[in-house]
Each structure stands twice: as C-alpha cells, then as structure tokens.
C-alpha cells in the first residue's frame, strides 16, 4: 500500500492511482459514491447515474436502508457484478456474537449478491451501551471474530472498520484472536479535519484510509480557500476537495443524488495528470485546519 507520488520531478502533476491494493491483494477503487441519506428512488437514480458515469465503488451501510434500491440500480446498469466494488457496514445495533453474521447475511440478501467486496464495523460503540462501558470492546471483538469467519468463507472479500480512533485501531491490531487484520478504516477527513496522526497510524499498520464528508457535507464547497484554489486550477470546489484527499493518499466517497453533480467525480476528472494541486495550493487548504467535525464523534467510546 505504497503512497503514490503526486508530482513529477519537474513539478508537473502525475495521474493518481485508480485503486489502492489492500493487504490481501484486493483492489479498492479510490473514487466511489457515498449514499448516506439517499433512499428509494433517489438512491436508485444516483447509483445508476454514477455507474453510467464510470464510478465503480458504491458505499452503503445497513443503517442507510438503501441496499435494495442499490441492488436495483446495479441490475439496471447491466454491469457484471465483478466490475463494481460494494462496501457496506455492520451497524451499532448489529454488533456481537450471532448478530454480526445475521447482519452480513441481510446485507448480502438486500444487495442481491453472493459476496460483498468490503464490510466495515460502522462504529466502535454498541447501540444502547454507555460510551464508557467495557462492553463496547467485548462486542467489537465478538463482531470481528464473526466477520473474520465470513471473510474465510468468502462471503466478504475484505474487512475493515469505520470511525475507529487510534486506540480502537491499536486494540484490534494487538488482539491475537484477530488473525485477519483490518484492511480499511473509513473516517471523516477534509482540510478542516485532516486527521494526520490517525492516517499515519493507519499507514504504518497497512490500513487504507477511506475519507468521508470530503465536501464537509456540502459546507466546504463555499469556503473561500477552496473557491480560490478552484478558480486557480479551473475546476469545481468539489473536484478540488476530492483531489486534495486523493493527493493525501485517501480514497473518497462523496455523496450526491444529483447526476449533474456526481458527473464531475469520474476517475479521469479526479485522477487525471492534466491537473493537480500544487504544494502551495495544498498548503493553503491545509491552513483551514481547525479540527471542525461535521459528523458524529467516536472519541469518547472506550
Ligand atoms: N462511516 C461513517 O460513519 C460515515 C459517516 C458519514 C458519511 N459516510 C459515507 O461518506 C459519504 C460522504 O459523506 P457525506 O454524505 O456525509 O458528506 P459529503 O460527501 O461531504 O457531502 C454530501 C452533501 O453535499 C451535497 N453536495 C454534493 N455536491 C454538491 C454541490 N456540487 N453543490 C452543493 N451541494 C453538494 C450533497 O447534496 P445532494 O445529494 O443534494 O447533491 C450532500 O448533502 C456518505 O454518503 C456515506 O456513504 C460514512
């Protein structure tokens, strides 16, 4: 999982990689579509539009309740199953012995597939459990043990976690019962909250990072430094924010239910060598860092 160079020795942009090779050899597409808060017709329409535009990674979760419309979009696309990378997540309500297996079986059924490309533990905490309860760690371990079994059975091609902080990652890496180590950590990353230390730990442990809320849930699209960079490179603010994350070595899963918006997020447009953010432009975006969080905070979960 070597980080790719983003500029030639003459300082010209280089094409960014289309995939990240996970520790088990599975290729994770670096550009995907997020689907949080997209349901029914919206999810079906957005996923079909994304697939038609060439996006080959779809991020969902059992808690998003849109796996069935995603299945319908996949069927309508006519694409072979093997050409699309599907990520789903086991929710805090589904953690623990017995439940995690049932959760993955539900995911497989709703997505209409024999295997999922990536299953993540959505959240380090367990539903209806106080954040400071030791039960969280016990249930996390039980969940991982079941996911590991499903991985060995071939129902899941790769395994990962989401919203895991440094200590949750360290705990899983150190657990001797966790023979299959996490391949991915998906968490909030954008210029205001770049999470350099957590990303460094993931890199050190061979865990690929998938950034979420790259657009700051829409809010960062109007931020003056983003607008200035967009004007300088003649690209949209969304393309600038996604290129920032990709140049930082993350995979991205921006969300839109509007085909005209997601049409800007194809691999050639985001990964091409015909443009890039210079060191100065990256630094100007990095100067936005203030720790602001757009989504929920897992830092209190023991
Ligand atoms: N693992 C986790 O706990 C977790 C947490 C959060 C997110 N995620 C995943 O990451 C994905 C992305 O994160 P996110 O959806 O929270 O935030 P995001 O991708 O940063 O932003 C999505 C929002 O931006 C809006 N938007 C997109 N393009 C726009 C444009 N050109 N102009 C104006 N608004 C625009 C979208 O609205 P429209 O749809 O109306 O275009 C949507 O409201 C999620 O969908 C989900 O798959 C995972």
UniProtKB/TrEMBL annotation:
A GO MF label: oxidoreductase activity, acting on the CH-OH group of donors, NAD or NADP as acceptor
Ranges of residues in domain NADP-dependent oxidoreductase: 31-264
Site (Lowers pKa of active site Tyr): 89
Active site residues per record: 64 (proton donor)
Keyword list, A-Z: NADP, Oxidoreductase
InterPro entries, A to Z: AKR (IPR020471), Aldo/ket_reductase_CS (IPR018170), NAD(P)_OxRdtase_dom_sf (IPR036812), NADP_OxRdtase_dom (IPR023210)
Residues binding substrate, per UniProt: 122
SUPFAM superfamilies (UniProt xref): NAD(P)-linked oxidoreductase
Signal peptide: none
Listed PANTHER family: 2,5-DIKETO-D-GLUCONIC ACID REDUCTASE, NADP-DEPENDENT OXIDOREDUCTASE DOMAIN-CONTAINING PROTEIN
Family: Belongs to the aldo/keto reductase family.
Protein name as it appears in the record: NADP-dependent oxidoreductase domain-containing protein
Species of origin: Chlamydomonas reinhardtii
Organism classification: Eukaryota, Viridiplantae, Chlorophyta, core chlorophytes, Chlorophyceae
